[in-house]
Amino acid sequence: MSAVRAFVGLALALASSPLAARDLVQASQPSDVAVTIYRDPYGDFDRNDPRGFAMISETRSVTLPAGDSTIRFEGVAEGMIAVSAIVSGLPGGTIEKNRNADLLSPAALVDGTLGNRVTITRTNPATGQEESEQAIVRTRADGGIVLQTSLGYEAVRCSGLPERVNFDSIPDGLSAQPVFSIDTHDETGGTYQVTLTYLSWGFDWQAHYVTRLEKPGRRSKQNASMLSWLTLVNDNAQSFQNAELMVVAGKLNVESDFEELAQPPRGEPLRLTCWPRGNTAAGSVPDVYPNLPPPPPPSPMMNETIVVTGARVRSEMFDAAAPVAVLAGEENLGDLKLFRVPEPITVRAKGLKQVAFLKKDRVRGEMIYEAACAYWDSRNEGSFEPARLMFITENDEEHGLGVSLPRGGVTVFEPSSAGELLVGEDDIRDYPVGQEVEIQLTQSTNLFYKCTATGKTRSAREGQSEWREMRTAITNASSQSARLRLEIGSTDNVEVQRVKGLKLRNGAHVIETRMKPGEEREITFWVRYT
Question: Which interval of the chain is the signal sequence (predicted)?
Fold first, then answer.
């Protein structure tokens, strides 16, 4: 019998020891935050539905007791990809990690108070006074709330009287912000600086270039100034205060479905179900709403001014002459490019932000015209088509650039007697240092061309398609000379012979020529399909 008592006493002692309990520890708010944003690798920038992601690194302080504990990191991004999370700086490492699925909401508040007391307050229809009493929550919030009061069981808000339910406290585990938690163990306990790093869905960025053309020089030479902005979007409901901000340019290979892995926590509303109105003989009263007046017209637009870090792109943003206080610096990241903002930046919830990353006052380039003749274009008659006017330059220091240019939009302005006017918009791809940069402006009103087949053919080697002669008529109505690029087709599909100025450029056959003022010319060449 004494042995049994000793065994029972030992079991009770073990059950009440710290080893049987796990203390809940709340991590501090982040003291240092770094946000690195990656573009959507498979689509264009969409500020209303960003499909890129970010790597977020937060430094927080935790005070651990001796033994087992659960650390709660409150305020992580709602788009957090929990499987990517890493916590460093803990002596005992991470035993288990969890993503809390529920946010503090009316439904979660009711569910967390199931079986506990609340206070219900009603308005007495006879006196008009509020009356309160204690009640016990007896059902979950998935169709209605039933309370046990001194009068029995009652459904909330089904009496037709004004009433409200007050809760004395928030149930354990509920938070208004998303929570990530981990289990850990520390032999001695203590205070530690830990770093939480994770990926989050719902970010994106793009570059936008504002280019100002100067007065044209001789022989199509053209100088310009260029100012570029990084536009960042955060679709999460959490802000990141005074963060070290970086963006990564280049296409990253991503195999995981980050959108599916993110699964943001939800705050469920109350859905109260009561009996139908009216009676069973008459049926339910249909929902009839009076005709509502139309909304008032929008107020007149105010004079807009630039807010560089705001959520709206405003007209004066294009003032390239304005001083730029902060420019993002470029760094190598393997085959990718990283742009780091040198000062802390607040990435606001559900907002846009713009940061300047490039300012070049004198970019030397040239105005050229581009046209295309397809191999299969066998028209013998047709009208002339306008060539496309482009601004080109070399991405090197000699021409005033020499920095990586991430893909994005381009807006081009040109001075005139009426002030600066918009002359073109384009989207450019990623341009590394050393490549030729092309910006399409508009269709020409001076240089026109027409491609036709002459009807002449000649045989090729056995098993190959025949050669066909093509003719391109070009006319330059301008009072200045013009440089023309005539693209024939891809090197994978066609072969070209018997023409001067033939070059290979970006995987295509290109004929380059210069047209004199007022000149008309015909270019013939032979082409065959490979």
Answer: 1-21
Q: How many domains does the chain have?
A: 2
pLDDT recorded at residue 324? 54
Residues recorded for the chain: 530
DSSP assignment of 34-50: EEEEE--TTS---TTS-
Output the CA torsion 39→45→47→52 (10° steps): -20
Place 241 in a pLDDT band, splitting at 50, 70 and 90.
very high
| Residue 179 resides in a domain | no
Tokens of 13: 């002692």
- Sign of the torsion angle spanned by Cα atoms 117, 118, 121, 122: negative
Is the residue at 269 inside a domain?
no
Classify the phi-psi angles of 506: left when phi > 0, otherwise alpha if psi is within -120 to 50, otherwise beta.
left
Sign of CA dihedral 407, 46, 230, 41: negative
Identify the helix (H) or strand (E) that includes residue 470: strand 467-476
139: domain CATH number is 2.30.30
CA distance 28 to 31: 8
Using one digit for the tens of pLDDT, what is the confidence trace for 435-469? 999 999 999 999 999 998 888 989 888 878 899 99
CB 173 within 8 A of CB 74: no
DSSP string for residues in 356-417: EEEEEEEEEEEEEEEEE--TT---SS---EEEEEEEEEESSGGGT--S-B-SEEEEEEE--T
Q: Which of 166, 183, 211 is the last residue of a domain?
A: 166
State which residues form the domain around 154. 106-166
Q: What tokens were used for 372?
A: 């295309």
Examine residue 305 and state whether it is found in any structural domain, yes or no.
Answer: no
Collect all residues with Cβ–Cβ distance below 8 Å to 321 and sequence separation of at least 6: none
